[in-house]
Please model this.
Amino acid sequence: MGAGGLASLAGCQGGQSDGGSAGDGDASTGDASTGDASTGGDSRGTYVEAVPSDAQSLNFLYQSDANSEKFVGAAMDAAYDFRDFGEIVPLWIESVTETDKTVWEYTLRDNLRWSEPYGQLTAEDWVYTVRNLYQGEGNWAGVVQYASWPDDVTIEETGERSFRVTLPEPQPAFLASRAMWGARCLPKGLIEPYVEERDVEGLKRDEELNTLSYTGNLGPYDFEEWERESRFVATRADEYYLREVAGEEPFGEAFAEAPYFDEYRLQVIPEESTRLQALREGDLTFYQNVPADKVAQYRELDHLKFRFPPNPYCASLYYNQRANGWELLRDVRVRRALSTAIDKVAVAEDIYRGFPTVAQTFQPEWSPWYVTERVTEHGAGDTHSYEEARSLLESAVSGTDYGYDGDALVGPDGSQVTLRLVFRAGASQNQTTAEFVAQELSNVGIAVDPVNGGPANTVQSKYLLNTDGEGQPTFNGGSRDASTSQEPWDLLYGITLNAYPINPNGSEVFWTESGSFNFFGYVPEAPLADWYATAKSTTDEAARREAFAKVFAALSEEQPVDFLNFSVFKNAYRRDYVGMPDEGEYDYLDGWDSTTWRLAEG
Amino acid sequence: MKWYVLRRLAWTLVATWLVLTLTFGLVAASPDPGASAYVAQQVQAGGDVEGAQASYERARGLDRPLWAQYRDYMIGMATLDWGWSETRSQPVVEAVAAAWPYSVMYGAPALLVSTVLGVAVGLYSATHRNTLEDYAASSFAFFGISIPDFWFAIVLILVFGVTLGWIPIYYRSDVPWLSLANARQLLAPALVVTLSSIAGEMRYSRATALEYVNSAFVKTAKAKGASSWRRVTRHVLRPALVPLSTILVADLLNVVLVSSYLVEVVFGIPGLGLLSYKAIRQQDVALVLATVLIPTFVALLGNLAQDVAYTVLDPRIDYGGREGR
Amino acid sequence: MSGESDESDRFEDVDWAALESTGAALAPRTAVVLVGALGIVAIVGYETLLATGAGPTVAWPVAYRATPLDGLFALTMLVVLAYGIHPLYDNPRLTRRYWATFRRNRAAVWSLWFLAVVFGLGLAGPMLLAKPELNVAAGYQPPVYTAVPTTVSGTCVGPVVDGMCRGTWRHPLGTTGRGKDVLVSVIYGMRVSLQVGLITTLIIVLLGTTVGTVAAYSGGLVDEALMRYVDVQLTFPTFFLYLLLLYLFGGTLFLLIVIFGLTSWGGTARLVRSEALQRREEGYVRAARSSGAGTAWIVRRHVVPNVSNTVVTNASLLVPSLILFEATFSFLGLGDPTVPSWGQVIAAGRGDLATAWWISTIPGVFLFLTVLALNFVGDALRDALDPRAAS
Model:
């Protein structure tokens, strides 16, 4: 259950979840075993983590969020995970080979077994699941994996343990697509009756699927009990396939006895202050994402230690370039001016207590696709300047009906330009940042009116989804002149997007004119669509790198949005919980071997 | 009178159906936050909005026409087949059955204590008006309804759980129900609920007692030399118990289902309050309907009981022959 | 009364024709209220529909922009003054009698003075003080004369001694996590509590009294229909409706007040109805009816004033519970985060109770005292206004 890559797969929109969880971030707290200090070789202790909300279902066909992954991932691994850029951790899959980046052959391990009576996990199970569920006609089953398996991708068995996936065109980054990364399948015997009847309800309510009782030796723990809204308990598996693989690259010897806890326990505690109290009391083994303003206090506690793995979620201030936004936002100079006027470093340092790293384009600095020399900086250190911003604005508005009247930028009607900044409710820092942006922009003569956009789904339906009058509202309902959102807006803050450093091809949906998630109506001046196409299909690594470098350089120059920062997880661990990298060395994917982390003796 | 009661009972059924229909309508009209998040996720992963919405609805049986869903739900409610809870992956009946013991575990003792204490304080206050003890007793009773429940609960955890270590910080549901450990961890939630319900009981008993304290028969008893204790218990309390008992049921329901949510969230108790609130927030239709059905039905019955009690209390009020006035 | 004045007035000499009200003239009080209400509606209407631009509409004496909430509040104050306070002026003997009974409850008297202070500060304070400003560099500052470790406070406005940040008079009650001064927030919160408490209560009282008295007096089908509707409304999950409207329109204080005002009057209606049922059988009502008075007249002139005591008591107990209700909604994250209410500050600071205790506790204390005071006053009012409890 690699904590890094797989967890970041789920949930493209980072940030706060709104449904019922109070407080910021996906905070999970662990609860250590009460009382007994583990003595002797048999008793290994309990891993306890507290989560803010319960999983809605253990059926991975219908759930894809990061929270559910904590539950399901305990009992089941997946096909493979990533441990570094370009290097996979072969879990269920033993090896992968490819031809021309078009035909990919996967070989399963030979010691994978479902629980009785389903026998061994074979290619037949995999192919059956993909063909009938993921590629089911018209997605009759309503599964979440349908988006990763388009109809022109074919899969076929080539042996008892091997299968082949054929793509319509070469995709060098296919390994990073969600078709196989973090993918799972189901035993044919289990789903066959539902497939034949096309019984969605049955599939949803099947008891084995809902109690993870089919998982055999496929995961480090076996499901024990799940008391809703209270706790989820799994016990150490008697048999775990990965133990037999210990010693082979990249699995160290530690895997021979993994996992090192007798019990894996998730405690559901909705109230953040209670979760934090449990952490303070030493009840927890692991707490994911302590709120930024509390990290300093908790670091002083003897029984805790912290790590700050970076995450790929980019927080940005979006500029509305559609017809219902400020018309001048379509001018690159104006956008650059605004980005110059807003001090990103202050946002990261003061509002978020210094934890996030400042962003300048849609890739974090630690990503292999980020080329520092080619990125144009705005709003940090020397590149944060009100004078510079004003002069940019002055040159941009000369020749238009806008102009500077003293300190204020006035529009054609003679009154000061006022921009509407919508922020998502749910995290107090969103409002703080919105008010800070208002203060910053007032220094260049633009008034900003921060507006509470409501929770995430309200923001989405009112400001993100747009339509040109015909057809359903979608995230990109048409050209920016024709398709507008329900409510007008100029600036928006509170939506974070996953930059997918493992395979940035996915970011095409944001930055091309017809990208399906381009809700802010950005029309790039540089030929981004061509570069993305090149990066997607070329088999030449250098050409790919160059294409992405150009894309991200262009994004930093054209500033479709003001890239503010990339955040980190502020994770707290019990001091005697060892196995993770040292502080300062914990990189994005370094959680892949978390199954071998243990409580130190003594 | 009999016809009146029968008519009201029939009305209870009709009203319940009405409220359920309205609730269903509201749920159908409300945007589903889960759907929004799901659609956004799928689009970012390369899907399209229509496909994402369709798969979401298909997985939850929402792709059937609205009237078909409505019909199935209503029939299900009546036949006690309450359907499947999407957000808990279990039958609704199981979800409710799992949750209500926890609510009752801290709610019933809390209500018992608050009733006894509330009535006692109310009687005392009625008979010793405007003395210092009256103010003290009233302050104590008002304390519970003057502070925000959630704040008080958090403070309790902080002081007694973290600083003093007398109670656990959060509720562990795997502790056997009839054990000392369970009692210990239920102390704080029960305390919060008790304190917030005392004032209501106190007020009501005080008002009722005041009605009788200056009445003729009590003064007669005093003239005859009855002690104040005897006057209070035998002459004042007895007639006051009738209306008191009717509000007890309403209070229990109110506590268990409404004000319990805050307590359950802060302490982490998987009870009915949390169940119904999460059902509403997450738009889990079947669960919402079930958790609306129970309190609606019982509240309507409680209203009927109260109305009948009015006629018992005040013979001038009669529902029998009021038509045609 | 016209008639012969030198001899004793006799019944036969009364000039009834002259006494009959012309029917067209309004009582002066009603006229004042109507004019005032029209003015308020006009101002608010202008602001919401016609005024453009984001700046304040009026710059002197204070920068001000009227919102619908302000309009509602002004209307409420007008009604309370006209129909609540003015009758007390008009009838000094009655007022003195009420006061005599009320005064005996010392706790209530103290509460009344406390509430007067809160009320005054709530009205005047926001006009003189600037709204609490976000100041990221001054977050988590402790109150004056206390100190807190710098790990909690971050950058310190005051002196740092031994790693402890000391409080200063610049922020006498400390600041919240985002640097907003707690004292100013508390004063602004007084105004919000006033708004929530008074406006919602007024709506509830108006609707509840009307429905309750009409139902009780009319009897029969009207009574049945109204009470059955009240049944449904009482058991209806109002929270749900609020949530739907929150998703559709965003969560504003105005919405909270209006929705809960419009849906929570059921309890009051039942209460008023039970009182009115008893009044209905009184002699004066029968006399009025047999002299030919219509339903509306009797309800307005005879029933309502006589149940008004119950209504006032009920209202005075509604106000505190509504204020607490708003705090609960802030805790659930459903309140209005742009409004500096006590509930918002308490809810925002609840995660910091172990370290930055002042953020939740100070407004919590104010909330507690205000609600407690309201409860005491309500109970004393009940004693003063309820004729049956005269000892």
Chain C touches chain A through 33 residues (CB under 8 Å). The mean pLDDT of chain C is 82. Strands of chain C lie at 147-149, 160-161, 164-166.
